[in-house]
Design goal:
With 110 residues, the protein is mostly beta strands. The protein is built from 1 helix and 7 strands, in the order αβββββββ.
Length: 110
């Protein structure tokens, strides 16, 4: 189900910010990147309200966990990028189109 309006209830907890890019590379990840205008979107709970956030990239890990790199409002005039683990506090708004590029980190050479 996709939500064009924000969810009517608050999540039990805020979304969890993900680790740094260096840590993602060490853990092994497949990254799907979306081009501007074709990216999916999500509602992200932040500062006591739901915010529309465009999804810039999706990071998929071998253990099945997923992180979303999103562009969210910082204040009334600017946007910022954050990476959150998929879970409470994030609701898919619409799926967008296919990723424009996909990369994978080879974890076999350690």
């Amino acid at each position: 189900m996709f939500y064009w309006e924000p969810p009517s209830t608050a999540p039990a907890i805020d979304p969890i910010e993900a680790p740094s890019r260096a840590e993602r590379a060490i853990r092994g990840v497949r990254t799907d990147v979306y081009s501007t205008g074709h990216e999916p979107a999500a509602w992200v709970w932040s500062d006591g309200a739901w915010h529309w956030a465009s999804i810039r990239a999706r990071h998929c890990y071998p253990d099945g966990s997923v992180e979303l790199q999103v562009r969210v409002p910082q204040d009334s005039a600017s946007l910022g990028e954050r990476t959150y683990r998929w879970g409470p506090g994030i609701v898919l708004a619409h799926p967008g189109s296919r990723a424009t590029s996909t990369t994978a980190v080879d974890t076999s050479r350690r």
